[in-house]
Amino acid sequence: MRNRNGIFWGIFLLLSAALLIVSQLHLITYTFNFWTIIATLFLVFFLVKSLVYFSISGTVFTLAFLAILYAKPLGIAALSAWTILGAALLITIGLSLILNPFLAKHRPWMRIKSKMKWSRRPFISYYEDDDDDTKTVDSSDVDVFVKMGNGVRYVRSDDFQTANIQANLGEAKVYFDHVTVRDTATIKVNVSLGNVELFVPRNWNVIKGVNNSMGNISEAGTQKLTADSPNVTITGLVSMGNLKIQYI
After folding, report:
1. Which end of the chain is least crowded, N or C, by CB within 10 Å?
2. What is the pLDDT of residue 119?
3. Where do the TM regions start and end (predicted)?
4. Rounded to whole angstroms, how far apart are CA atoms 64 and 168?
5. Beta-strand runs (E) in the chain
6. Same domain for 203 and 96
7. Does residue 216 carry a pLDDT above 60?
């Protein structure tokens, strides 16, 4: 993780320096005002972060916002902002379907044991993961994969250790109120244009290490920590999505 952070800040600072020099030397005919530069730096920040963490939705939508910002010099002023964003959504869905299996090896939180079947027609696949249902999972290691659907999982375990939760263009709700953590546990999330809600015991000492790329991470409820509270680390990536941690 530290290596990725170093790469991210290195690339971001180099691009920022290049943008500053180009804007001051007037090497291009387009005139940069102060707020355009600030907005560009902000978008470049998220673009580099999305590239470093292999976030398809973050990369595509950041490029879409840059295209909207520089529509005139790019010669696409005839396109409305909604047209560009609509195209970005379709591109994100298409690239996610094509590239997610290859990107999984670069993103450990995506390595989920999903059942994949292929239809007789080439290049068409579907996932058999009970996307739109409710299930009770009795296991120390939990995998949840929701794609273009909704899923609710109730976890039951006397020795909970890990959970891998992925939501792409879908919504996942996972309840951990009937599990026991003996020492430590890890919950890995990957949210892309989706929503994940984690319902966790209020006596858990939750350690948050989630990377946020143009998404939202929130908490609700009140923690009640004691000397025996287990440490539970939540890691992963939220890209153009929402992660909510609800203490119950």
Report:
1. N
2. 38
3. 7-26, 32-48, 53-71, 77-103
4. 19
5. 116-118, 125-127, 133-138, 141-147, 150-157, 162-168, 171-179, 184-192, 195-200, 205-213, 216-220, 231-239, 242-247
6. no
7. yes
**236, two tokens:** 């992963």
Packing angle, helices 56-69 and 81-103, rounded to 10: 160
* Cα–Cα dist 204/111, whole Å: 25
Between 10 and 32, the more confident residue is 10
Backbone angles phi, psi at 186, to 5 degrees: -135, 135
The larger pLDDT score, comparing residue 243 to residue 48, is at 243
**69 vs 89: CA distance, rounded Å:** 18
The residue range of the domain holding 81 is 2-103
Cα Rg for the chain, rounded, in angstroms? 21
Give residues with Cβ within 8 angstroms of 126, minimum separation 6: 117, 119
What integer pLDDT is reported at residue 24 of this predicted model?
Answer: 65
pTM: predicted TM-score of the whole model, two decimal places: 0.62
